[in-house]
Design a protein that fits this description.
135 residues; two-stranded antiparallel ribbon; 18% strand; flat
């Protein structure tokens, strides 16, 4: 027997309401922001997605209801990123890899290490992760 709803009637759908198992991922093109990204928003609420036929194939396209044409993307003054990852030049910071700079940081810390590991000890206390700095 199924779940009972608020009115005492059995519910027709026994799925998980309100929870989505699908994780949203950014969709940058190269390193630049894309209008079809789930985090790209318009502050005028005029961004709509339409299907256009281009050379016999259906493609999704972002349209602006405010100007009645294709969305300008990051060049529009009303465009913003939900995750605050859109830079003024259109680069998506979610697409940039930060792993390259981490090793350089540790080399720089070792270069300026004064007093036998004092810098690593302070970093360990501030971040709460001493295991990283004990190398």
């Amino acid at each position: 027997m199924g779940l009972v709803g608020a009115a005492g009637k059995p519910q027709r759908f026994e799925g998980q309401h309100g929870s989505s198992s699908k994780e949203l991922k950014p969709l940058p093109i190269g390193k630049f922001c894309n209008q079809l990204c789930p985090f790209f928003k318009c502050s005028k609420n005029s961004l709509v997605f339409v299907n256009k036929v281009v050379k016999g194939h259906v493609q999704k396209s972002a349209m602006c209801r405010w100007i009645g044409d294709q969305c300008l993307g990051y060049r529009c003054q009303f465009a913003f990123c939900e995750r605050k990852a859109l830079l003024p030049n259109g680069v998506c910071t979610l697409a940039i890899r930060f792993s390259e700079g981490v090793e350089d940081f540790f080399k720089e810390v070792e270069k300026y290490d004064i007093g036998g590991g004092k810098v690593k000890d302070i970093l360990g206390r501030r971040t709460g992760r001493k295991d990283i700095y004990l190398e």
